[in-house]
Amino acid sequence: MRFAEKEIVLKDGRTCVLKPNSPEYAEQMIKYLKETSGETEFLLRNPDEVKFTLEEEQNLLAGFLDNPGIIMMAAVVDGKVAGNMSIAGIGPQRRLAHRCSLAIALYKEFWGLGIGTSMIGYGSELAAKAGWKQMDLEVLAGNDQAYKLYKKCGFIETGVRHNALRYDDGTCRDEILMYKEL
Ligand SMILES: CC(C)(COP(=O)(O)OP(=O)(O)OC[C@H]1O[C@@H](n2cnc3c(N)ncnc32)[C@H](O)[C@@H]1OP(=O)(O)O)[C@@H](O)C(=O)NCCC(=O)NCCS
Q: Ligand 1 centroid vs 103 CA: distance in angstroms?
């Protein structure tokens, strides 16, 4: 989906631009996906599972830009992709058309600067305008920073998915389900 860029001022005084992610960021996005998955155990992928070629990533980002059912928002600071948030419809059926799902991750060096709060605020506005009535998300148990962000942004805890993730060492983690009315 295409939408207007928005400038925000971070807690450290720098400016960050929230804008539609696009093929121009494909190379940065591959690096971002690999590096952010290695910076925290709270994301779904292992770094070695990021295997997109530049061309595949460019095509994916071009497709998202032209798809009215997906918001792919990049946060860009001094030309660098600091993070990305996706908001996408749950499924094509009419009975699911009211729901979308949110996912967000930033490089560690950009945590705690207010980017997450601004991205979810702007993303919620765009999602409501696009016609979705409810936003869902999952957060891994123990991810206190993300849980606090979601509570601050109005999400309500509604349940737990047992052992949602299983790590290579055999340990598992539950996932907390949350939603917000738009
Ligand atoms: C979760 C994440 C997106 C939060 O974004 P952020 O830009 O760091 O969040 P903000 O700076 O807007 O802070 C939002 C709230 O989070 C909480 N928070 C921020 N930093 C925190 C920290 N170091 N420890 C605990 N809580 C913290 C605070 O409640 C804060 O609200 P406040 O600013 O009013 O105090 C970011 O930390 C991240 O990318 N983490 C790794 C990937 C991840 O876990 N993604 C979510 C998967 S469900």
A: 13
Which domains are delineated in the chain? 6-133 (3.40.630.30)
What six digits make up the tokens of 176?
A: 């907390």
**Which residue in 77, 70, 68, 63 sits closest to 26, CA to CA?**
63
- Does an H or E element contain 175, and which? strand 172-181
Is 152's C-beta closer than 6 angstroms to any atom of ligand 1?
A: yes
Please identify which residue in the block is written with the tokens 């770094």: 47
What are the φ/ψ torsions at residue 145 (nearest 5 degrees)?
-65, -45
pTM greater than 0.85 (yes/no): yes
Res 52: pLDDT: 94
Kind and range of the H or E run holding 84: strand 80-89
Instruction: Decide: 120 and 73 in contact? Cβ < 8 Å.
Output: no
**β partners of residue 161:** 175
Tell me what percent of the residues of the chain surpass a pLDDT of 90. Answer: 100
Q: Give the number of the atom of ligand 1 that is nearest the alpha carbon of residue 11.
A: 11
pLDDT tens readout for residues 1-11: 999 999 999 99
Mean pLDDT of 71-88: 98
